[in-house]
Design brief:
The chain is an alpha+beta fold. It is built from 12 helices and 14 strands. A hairpin with a 2-residue loop joins strand 4 and strand 5. The chain is globular.
Length: 398
């Protein structure tokens, strides 16, 4: 079913679904002999084992087997989160008094970005938004100690995503490729994620925005996030000379997101803003998680996501990119060098439809799944994240 048909009348229809818990999605490919273990034991160890199995499977495809596992792609690329929460306060007036030059410069750059994407007055008039786009995802390279496997672009999986937002901190996203899909959302108090193979999970720590929304689709949230950043220099991205803004999750946020044997060590986000246009043209973040179960050696999962934003167009006065490309590098290390693995995944997206202030969209649309509301899902996305990072979603973090 096309995303356009799925979204026709979706406001009223999906609100009903959410009141009774998240409707089950079509199952994607399931690792033989692993799906029951994953549902029973979602610990870092079991998910790490599953991730290792996934990488091995992608490294040594059998004849006629698809090179990219849709679930691995969805887990890592589908719904990663930003490193920190976003203030709901209006952008502050530019001030240089008693403010470090790195911070005041960042504030000026963000003000320029806000103006280039429509202006704060127009942004503040947006109550909600809807975005639908097409995606192509691919596990392009898997490197182990013994070999490197590269997959051609023709092996990419085609899919789509739908993103709904209600300002300032409610959002819901569904992304599907082939017959697999992932859903995630926030009701302003809880961030959750659901996949048919791992169930529903609530993220630990503060409520953070969806990274996909920061890829130019939500200028107001993007500006609110980077207003607390620091300008650390300049760099040329393609043909554009850019200012670099750096945003780092503080120790208390990292500690709140950590869980059990998984410790979030760092999460840093860099935004590259064109000096010529003021627009955000490149986004990069790095996320490192340490996982150590009792009696085992520590394993580290480092996830790096780099996104180029292109084809800016105005929609109702708001300037947003309508195309882009992300490259993810997932690096597993820490034990014997022979077991180190590096996986490269890519996503290309194109925006098909955008609408602001959609009539009929209510807070009921963003109610979490029943498992989350009833407090039965005790695992955290973080765990997943750990797992996620380590397993499926930059989402170790994420």
């Amino acid at each position: 079913m096309s995303p356009r048909k799925r979204c026709s009348g979706v406001v009223g229809r999906r609100s009903g679904i959410m009141r009774t818990g998240l409707a089950p999605l079509m199952e994607g490919p399931t690792p033989e002999g692993h799906e029951k273990d994953l549902r029973k034991d979602r610990s870092a160890a079991s998910i790490g084992q599953w991730m290792k199995w996934q990488l091995e499977k992608n490294s040594w495809p059998s004849a006629g087997q698809k090179r990219s596992d849709p679930r691995l792609l969805l887990g890592v690329l589908g719904c990663p989160l930003a490193p920190v929460a976003v203030s709901t306060e209006p952008l502050p007036h530019l001030s240089i008094k008693d403010v470090p030059i790195e911070a005041s410069s960042a504030q000026y750059i963000v003000q320029q970005y806000s103006a280039a994407t429509g202006g704060s007055k127009l942004h503040s008039g947006i109550r909600n938004s809807y975005t639908m786009g097409k995606v192509r995802m691919l596990t392009s390279e898997v490197e182990t100690a013994s070999r490197v496997t590269r997959n051609p672009i023709k092996a990419a999986e085609n899919g789509w995503f739908v993103l709904w937002q209600m300002m300032p901190d409610k959002w819901s996203v569904e992304l599907a490729i082939e017959d697999s899909s992932v859903q995630a959302g926030s009701n302003g108090k809880t961030v959750w994620r659901y996949t048919p193979w791992l169930g529903a999970h609530a993220a630990k720590g503060p409520v953070r925005p969806l990274r996909r929304a920061l890829q130019g689709l939500d200028p107001m949230t993007t500006a609110s996030m980077f207003i607390t950043a620091h300008c650390i220099g300049e760099k040329k991205i393609g043909e554009e000379d850019c200012f670099i803004l750096k945003l780092t999750a503080d120790p208390s946020t990292l500690a709140a997101r950590s869980d059990g044997p998984a410790e979030i060590i760092r999460h840093v986000l860099f935004g590259y803003f064109s000096q010529r246009t003021g627009l955000l043209v490149y986004l990069e973040d790095s996320h490192l998680t340490r996982v150590q179960a009792n009696g085992t050696e520590a394993i580290y999962w480092e996830t790096t996501i780099e996104s180029a934003l292109e084809d800016y167009k105005y929609v109702d006065g708001i300037n947003i990119p309508h195309a882009g490309h992300s490259v993810v590098t997932l690096f597993r290390f820490g034990e014997e060098a022979m077991n180190h693995t590096k996986t490269r995944m890519e996503e290309t997206w194109n925006i098909e439809e955008v609408a602001f202030n959609v009539p009929g969209l209510s807070e009921d649309f963003f109610i979490p799944p029943a498992e989350i509301r009833q407090g039965n899902a005790t695992d955290v996305l973080q765990q997943k994240e750990k797992p996620l990072d380590a397993q499926v979603c930059n989402e170790l973090e994420k």
